[in-house]
Amino acid sequence: MKSNLFKNLKRNMEMSSKFQDIDFSKESRKKVMQKIDNISKRKKYPKWKLTFNVAISFFILFGISYFGFEHLFVSEPNPPNADETTQLPSDNNRSEINSDMRAKQEVKELLRNSEENFSSAKGVYSTYIKTYSRETIIDFEMNMKNPSGGYEKAVQDDGSKYYTYIDENYIWDLDLQHKTYFKTEKDDTTLNFTSSILFTDYIANTYLQNEENWNIEEVQSIVGRDALYITGTLNDYNTEAYGIHTYEFWVDKETGILLKYKLYSLDGNVTSSLTVKEISLNTNLKEIDYTPNIEGYKKE
Questions:
Q1: Chunked in runs of 10, what are the mean pLDDT values of the chain (300 residues)?
Q2: Residue 98's pLDDT is what?
Q3: How far is CA 244 from the centre of its chain?
Q4: Dist. CA 203–CA 249, nearest whole Å
Q5: Cβ contact 164:152 at 8 Å
Q6: What's the pLDDT at 90?
Q7: What is the pLDDT of residue 48?
Q8: Which of 52, 54, 104, 132 has its CA 20 to 30 A from that of 272?
Q9: Domains of the chain
Q10: How far is the C-alpha of 250 from the C-alpha of 231, rounded, in Å?
Q11: In what order do the strands lie in the sheet with 258-264?
C-alpha cells in the first residue's frame, strides 16, 4: 500500500537543478514515469495536499525507483585511520548490540506488515505544514474486509473541505467549496493521507533503512495505545535535498500504525507533523455504501 503522490511531479523534477546531473537508468526512468502517468489520472490536489504527501512519502518514489536505497539512505563509512587501534566490543557490548539490532529488525517487520494487523480503522488526526502555516483535521474510516472501502474528510483551518471516498470499484475526490468532483477507477485500497498512517511499510524501507541512524527510545502512550517512540537522523545528502534532518515517529506497538510524527529541518524547526487524536481498530463498522452523494456537483 502506498500513499498517492502528486500529478505534476514529473514536471517539478525536471525543473529542479537537484536532479539535472543524475544519470538515471532507462529502466528506472520507465518505471517512475509509468507511476506518474497513472497518478496523473487523479485530480490536481491543493498545495496543502501536495506538501503533506511530499513530506511523508517523497522518499518512496525517488528513494526506490531512481537512486536506490544504497545511494539515498546508506551513509558513507568514514575511512579507517591507520594510526588508530581498532577496539573490539566486549562480550557485554556485543550482546547489547545484537539485542538492539534484533529489536530494530522486529520494528521494521512490524511496519512492513501493518496492513495485516487490523481489519478496520476509524478515527481523527491532525496535520500541520509549516510552509503554509496550516492545520488540517481529517476524519477517516477504512474497512479492509469485503466489501472493502472507506473515506477521509479533510477540513482545513480556513474552512476548506476536501473529501475522498473509496468503494469496491472507484475513488471519488470531492471539493466541497467549489462543488466539483473527480472520479477514477480504483487500482488499490488507498486514501490520500490515511494510507500514510495505516500502511507504514514505507517508513521501514526509507527512514529506518539504515539501522545505525535511528533508535527506539521508549514506549509511550498515545491515545490510550502503547507506542514505540523512534528518533533518527537523515544523512547529509537527504538533509540538503529535502530539508529534513531529524525525525520522530510514534508507532503503535501492536499493529505498526503511525500514531504521531514530527519532521525537523537542520535548524530544529518542525517542517510538518501529524497527531492521531482518536482511533479505534477492528470494530464492527456499519455496512454502509461508500459511494458519495454527488448531486449538485460538477465533474472535472
A1: 36 36 41 42 44 42 31 36 48 64 95 94 94 90 83 93 90 93 80 87 92 94 96 91 94 97 95 96 77 91
A2: 66
A3: 14
A4: 9
A5: yes
A6: 59
A7: 40
A8: 104
A9: 10-72 (no CATH), 114-281 (2.50.20.10)
A10: 9
A11: 214-222, 225-233, 246-252, 258-264, 270-281, 120-129, 134-143, 149-156, 161-166, 170-175, 180-185, 298-299
C-alpha cell at 122: 476509524
Q: Is the dihedral of CA 54, 111, 142, 36 positive or negative?
A: positive
Alpha-carbon dihedral 125, 130, 134, 135, rounded to 10 degrees: 20
Which grid cell is 97? 548490540
Beta-strand runs (E) in the chain: 120-129, 134-143, 149-156, 161-166, 170-175, 180-185, 214-222, 225-233, 246-252, 258-264, 270-281, 298-299
Q: Look at residues 197, 194, 106 and name the one whose alpha carbon lies nearest to residue 154.
A: 194
Between CA 232 and CA 210 the distance in angstroms is 10
pLDDT of residue 102: 92
| Grid cell at residue 186 | 480504483
CA distance 170 to 149: 10
Rounded CA-CA distance 46/147 in Å is 30
Question: In angstroms, rounded to a whole number, what is the distance separating the alpha carbons of residues 252 and 92?
Answer: 30
**Rounded alpha-carbon distances, angstroms, from residue 158 to 43, 132, 214, 249, 273:** 21, 11, 36, 28, 18
Amino acid residing at 216: I
pTM: 0.70
Q: What is the pLDDT of residue 188?
A: 65
Distance CA 146, CA 120 (A): 11
**DSSP structure class, residue 212:** G
Among 27, 10, 7, residue whose Cα is nearest residue 19: 10
Peptide bond into 292 cis (omega under 30): no
C-alpha cell read off for 65? 525507483
CA terminus-to-terminus distance, the chain:
26
